[in-house]
Amino acid sequence: MKKITIAIDGFSSTGKSTVAKQLAKALNYVYVDSGAMYRAVTLYAMQHGIISEAYFNVDRLVTELDHVQIGFKYNATLGFAEVYLNGKNVENDIRTLEVSQHVSRVAEISEVRRMLVRQQQVMGKEKGVVMDGRDIGTVVFPDAELKFFMTASAETRAKRRYKELLERHEHVSYEDVLKNVMSRDLIDSTREDSPLIKAQDALEIDNSDMSLVAQFEKLYNMAQRVINQE
Ligand code: CDP
Ligand code: CDP
């Protein structure tokens, strides 16, 4: 059967990565978390004194991009590929609220985007890929056979992310999580280079009141329909 490319874009904590992983597993496709790559570059910048709350040396980050090696390695126990930064597994380190508070400023930089988009296009060139992010259906794979655009209310999304961070034993306040979700929404959708916008041919899904099961079924049925047409 012909393999297709599935692009899932949308706002933070709309369940993109959860449903992308489920789809990849069900279809025997590769899952790529493009946000993890922006988070890994951000972690590099934090670890090397390039970015903090009060400071961001954009020129230094751009000069040092050659030193930022990002890779994915499949973890059979988890059932998905974990992200590596310069040979070190950073799957957990990139998910902190601190990384979330810096990542959208890093993702605004065109040189960063160019480097990561190139890598993402290589990872998806054989098709049979489900990739989630902000610009997958618009910039990375504009010709993807199936595109979704996920939304939900900011409060619903912040509640989901807050619960996740607590489960990871990160003690943050709900207010800070909501503030971060809203500030990333704004930066991501208004930046000049590859803003978060719905691709014209993407199917919009508001999952504020949709369970994970219902959401998976909806996307899986759509995927089957498109695959059968190919
Ligand atoms: O999981 P969550 O939705 O919180 O975020 P993510 O997918 O890990 O992405 C983190 C950040 O990376 C986003 O807020 C964007 O600023 C940036 N990003 C992007 O610009 N383009 C992508 N394709 C993926 C992520
Ligand atoms: O990748 P993205 O940031 O869009 O979201 P995610 O990491 O897949 O989902 C964020 C959290 O919301 C996870 O804990 C999901 O289980 C939860 N979620 C939910 O409870 N119901 C949904 N319909 C979608 C996501």
UniProtKB/TrEMBL annotation:
<dbReference type="GO" id="GO:0036430">
    <property type="term" value="F:CMP kinase activity"/>
</dbReference>
<dbReference type="GO" id="GO:0015949">
    <property type="term" value="P:nucleobase-containing small molecule interconversion"/>
</dbReference>
<dbReference type="GO" id="GO:0006220">
    <property type="term" value="P:pyrimidine nucleotide metabolic process"/>
</dbReference>
<dbReference type="InterPro" id="IPR011994">
    <property type="entry name" value="Cytidylate_kinase_dom"/>
</dbReference>
<dbReference type="Pfam" id="PF02224">
    <property type="entry name" value="Cytidylate_kin"/>
</dbReference>
<keyword id="KW-0067">ATP-binding</keyword>
<feature type="binding site">
    <location>
        <begin position="10"/>
        <end position="18"/>
    </location>
    <ligand>
        <name>ATP</name>
    </ligand>
</feature>
<protein>
    <recommendedName>
        <fullName>Cytidylate kinase</fullName>
        <ecNumber>2.7.4.25</ecNumber>
    </recommendedName>
</protein>
<dbReference type="GO" id="GO:0036431">
    <property type="term" value="F:dCMP kinase activity"/>
</dbReference>
<keyword id="KW-0418">Kinase</keyword>
<keyword id="KW-0963">Cytoplasm</keyword>
<dbReference type="InterPro" id="IPR027417">
    <property type="entry name" value="P-loop_NTPase"/>
</dbReference>
<feature type="domain" description="Cytidylate kinase">
    <location>
        <begin position="6"/>
        <end position="223"/>
    </location>
</feature>
<dbReference type="InterPro" id="IPR003136">
    <property type="entry name" value="Cytidylate_kin"/>
</dbReference>
<dbReference type="GO" id="GO:0005524">
    <property type="term" value="F:ATP binding"/>
</dbReference>
<keyword id="KW-0808">Transferase</keyword>
<comment type="similarity">
    <text>Belongs to the cytidylate kinase family. Type 1 subfamily.</text>
</comment>
<keyword id="KW-0547">Nucleotide-binding</keyword>
<dbReference type="GO" id="GO:0005829">
    <property type="term" value="C:cytosol"/>
</dbReference>
